[in-house]
């Protein structure tokens, strides 16, 4: 199997709106290349977009464990936990992402949304 070609195919599936198809192509690549953060991130995004939230969480936690300074992984992990109704856990990761990348509007919006759920006024 040509891993690079499969990754490119998976990217096309993802961009064409077929995240589940992309995930099927990416899963064996992650097994073959477990330290490849780009492949793992795309797999996590594909799981997130196809509502396979437990699987997305697993991939995102692996990314955060490997690189705690990965603000995007923290953000998507926070969003994944939010979608699972785990607001307090989500808040931790959204705060980290927003602190690392304060000028990112999506990060600030997600943080504000979850904070309002955890601490309603």
Q: What string, H for helix and E for strand, traces the elements in order?
A: HHHHHHH
Mean pLDDT, to the nearest integer, reads: 96
Give the distance, in angstroms, between the N- and C-terminal Cα atoms.
55 Å
Number of helices: 7
What is the helix fraction of residues, given as a range? over 70%
Strand content: under 5%
Secondary structural class: mainly alpha
Low-confidence stretches: none
Using only CA atoms, what is the Rg?
A: 15 Å
Organism: Asanoa siamensis
InterPro entries: TPR-like_helical_dom_sf
Pfam families: TPR_19
Protein name: Tetratricopeptide repeat protein
Describe this structure in words.
- The protein is elongated, with a radius of gyration of 15 Å.
- With 121 residues, it is mainly alpha-helical.
- The protein has helices spanning 3-15, 19-32, 37-49, 53-66, 71-83, 87-100, 105-118.
- The chain folds into two domains: 1-56, no CATH class; 68-121, no CATH class.
- The chain contains seven helices and no strands.
- The mean pLDDT is 96.
- InterPro entries: TPR-like_helical_dom_sf.
- It holds the Pfam family TPR_19.
- This is Tetratricopeptide repeat protein.
- It comes from Asanoa siamensis.
Entry keywords:
single chain, 121 residues, mainly alpha, 7 helices, Tetratricopeptide repeat protein, TPR-like_helical_dom_sf
Topology (elements, then pairings):
Layout: H1 3-15, H2 19-32, H3 37-49, H4 53-66, H5 71-83, H6 87-100, H7 105-118
Helix pairs in contact: 1-2, 2-3, 3-4, 4-5, 5-6, 6-7
Task: Quickly describe the structure.
The chain has two domains: about 1-55, no CATH class; about 70-120, no CATH class. Helices cover about 80% and strands about 0% of the residues. It has seven helices and no strands.
